[in-house]
Amino acid sequence: MPELPEVETVRRTLADVVTGRKITAVQVFLPRLLKNAVPQVFGHTLTGRVITSVVRRGKYLRLVLDGDKDLLIHLRMTGSLIYMPAGSGIPGTAHIVFTLDMGILVYCDVRTFGCLWLVPKTGKTGIKGYDELGPDATDPAFTIDYAWPILHKSRRTVKAFLLDQTVVAGLGNIYADEALFAAGIRPSRRCYGITKRELIALKKAIDDVLADGIAYGGTTIRDFVNGSGREGENSENLAVYGRQGRPCLRCSTKIAYVKQGGRGTHYCPHCQK
After folding, report:
1. Rounded to whole angstroms, how far apart are CA atoms 19 and 54?
2. Residues near 192 by Cβ (< 8 Å), separated by ≥ 6?
């Protein structure tokens, strides 16, 4: 599932080309992707609207429009939102096509788990999972002072803590594993046993791995592409994720893989105490 760096990469690549563009037509080929509107209402609401900005919160992408509704998108596992210049043919994999006054915006989704909603511009959206989001992992509000009281009283594992979107929004399996490795903390550690010094190291590690993920255009394991249709290049920077059985880049111990809370988890048994 695309995480913060991947969705931020999509946001940046789209913002450059769709901001200020008017939606002139909407074609919906797979109605079940629309979660709170039928295709006719969805198309009528968006047609004629101008995209004023593209923003991100956690793993959600939002097209801010000049009308009374915005378009909220969660790419889930295999969703992609790609801008194509005027004159481009509609790909056969397209599920929703937004024709713009200059070019087209195409939503494709191999496994069709993605979600699109029409949402009010302000206040609660009524979307479970979005309204409850904690501070973004890149937001100045995500500080040691914010995280320490929550962490210190929790009996969960630190990996589960990082994946809880109500605590911090945007982190997923890849970057949680990478941050814990960089901080030298084993994913199975219980939160109440993490020291404040370790939390400071973990916060820095989160900042670093997310910055690298964004700088390299996201991590493509299978399906992720940015708003221009290009794959991310951050997979070369991964220290533990997807490297089970291979030698640790620091100590040469084989990277371990376990299922933790139903999620695949990668770590170095030597470097992560």
Report:
1. 7
2. 151, 152, 153, 154, 155
Residue 2 a catalytic site member = yes
C-alpha distances in Å from residue 105, one per residue of 30, 37, 225, 238: 15, 19, 14, 31
Q: What is the DSSP string of 223-248?
A: S---TTSPPP-GGGG-SSTT-TTSBP
Contact 3, 174 (CB under 8 A): yes
Residue 88: both structure tokens together:
């481009």
Distance of CA 205 to the CA centre of its chain: 18
Token pair of 206 as six digits: 């989160």
Beta bridge partners of 169: 136
Catalytic entry in 11, 21, 59, 62:
59
C-alpha to C-alpha distance for 269 and 273, rounded to whole angstroms: 7
C-alpha angle 122-123-124 in degrees, rounded to nearest 5: 130
Q: Is 233 a known active-site residue?
A: no
Q: What is the pLDDT of residues 166-192, one digit of tens each?
A: 999 999 999 999 999 999 999 999 999
**pLDDT tens digits for range 15-38:** 999 999 999 999 999 999 999 999
Total-model pTM: 0.95
Active site residue 263: yes
